[in-house]
What we know:
The complex is a heterodimer of chains A (about 150) and B (about 325). The relative contact order of chain A is 0.13. In chain A, α4 (about 85-95) crosses α7 and α5 crosses α7. Chain A has two domains: about 1-65, Rna Polymerase Sigma Factor, Chain: A (Orthogonal Bundle); about 65-150, Winged helix-like DNA-binding domain superfamily/Winged helix DNA-binding domain (Arc Repressor Mutant, subunit A), CATH 1.10.10. Chain A has helices at about 5-15, 15-35, 45-60, 85-95, 100-110, 115-120, 125-150. By secondary structure, chain A is mainly α. Chain B is an alpha+beta fold. Chain B folds into four domains: about 10-45, no CATH class; about 65-110, no CATH class; about 140-165 and about 285-330, no CATH class; about 180-280, no CATH class. Helix content of chain B is about 45%, strand content about 15%. A three-stranded antiparallel sheet of chain B has the order 5-6-7, with helices on one face. In chain B, about 15% of the residues are buried. Classes of the chains: A mainly alpha (about 150), B alpha+beta (about 325). The interface between A and B is medium-sized, with 35 and 35 residues.
Amino acid sequence: MYSDHIYRFILKNIKNENTAQDIVQDSYEKLWINRKPVYFTKVKSYLFTTAYRTMIDIIRKQKRVSLTDDYSVFETHEENDYSDMNEVLHEAIEKLPEIQRSVILLRDYEGYSYKEIAEITKLNESQVKVYIYRARVYLKNYIGKIENLV
Amino acid sequence: METINRHNYGAYFLDYSEGNLSESNKQELIRFLAKNPSLKEELNNFEELKLTPSHIKFTKKEELIKKTRAQHFEITEFEYLCVASIENDINESEKKQLKKELKNIKKQKAFEIFSEIKLQANSDIQYLSKDVLRKKYFALKYSTIISIASAAAVLLFLIFSRNFFLNNNFENRTVPIAYDLSNKNRVNTFLNNNKTNLYDKNHTQQEQASVIHNQTIKNSANNVLAFEDSEPRSNTDLYKELTVSIPEIKSGALISNINNNISINYIPATIAVNYDGLQRNKNDQLWKYAEKGVHIWKKLTNDDIELKNEYAENGSINEVNFIASNFQFRKTFNRK
């Protein structure tokens, strides 16, 4: 039911199909194991929470991505012919810090509230809001830069 | 304040060093020291003990100043208002403020870009292995482990105590319990095939020959079922579940073996039926008892366990299904 959503979310974050598939499977397995204490209405949130945390564990193990906010802006984008805004945005989110990318994907893809995102990511609501705002400003600046180039 | 004396001068010294003495008390202190010059040095030492503040400074004073939201977000106030607007997280005063800002054409352009920032999921990306997500995995929760262990204990008990449950005669019997002896050829074939079984040393000749004699019982489908005399009465319940109809009654035979001289006397009234369908081996019987055992266990403990057997038309077991919570074990018997 939610496997596509979770798969897209994870894939957007880690860019590895096999690992993304493993995480989806792992999340559903955990859901089966804990199906009794999980309310039906919370299943989606449970799956996203589990998937997100599994993903973070994997990322930390692989030491591939830093969770800090340090990032350099506008330095490495390729000059492509952008057919639509969504394409540009998806290129831009890959350049976001891990945590900002996760929260904005949860916000835009799944329409989660700050509170729900906070529960999934183990942040507080204020932190979630800050990350989303910063991410949007980053994306806006990225797009502005692209527009100037085009 | 009490008049200064040699018992309370310490309080005067402290107040003096801290500048808390009134003018009259100061005069009183001076007069006291004049009378007690040995205490002058003590007063001097007292003053030297006074701590002077160091020059350490708190350097992060700017962090104590309350930040604006934009500063907290590390974005400009205008950016904050734009994002708040597209996040639908904006109040009335902020709306007014944004409206003012948008009078600037550059800011209008920036706001338009902000408005376009809404990520959309690519629906072409799909998780294709959905089948894998169905309940394939079984969780060995504590309660499940207990259930499985309980069921396993029941099964083991049944297996190791099968001699208690199973009738030895029953176990040893592998031939049909009755035969169609309606004509001589069949009798001869029967005797040739079953000599060993019929003529073992534990039976008298006459008893052996009467193997074709049966108990009969009608089941709910009004079918007549036939049982060997030695068949435990309890087993008839098992046979009742099978729909076995007796074919046309034909004449049977009384087989005698006197001094190894076999003779056959046809007895018209004898029911002689070949109902191989009622063959059952010890495994069938064992699983039947196991099913009942697990059922009893479930009743007693309310555990989420079940053992369901499936039987073929001939009464032999086809399949065993053991279910404990979300764990399922299935064993299929292939028999020729």
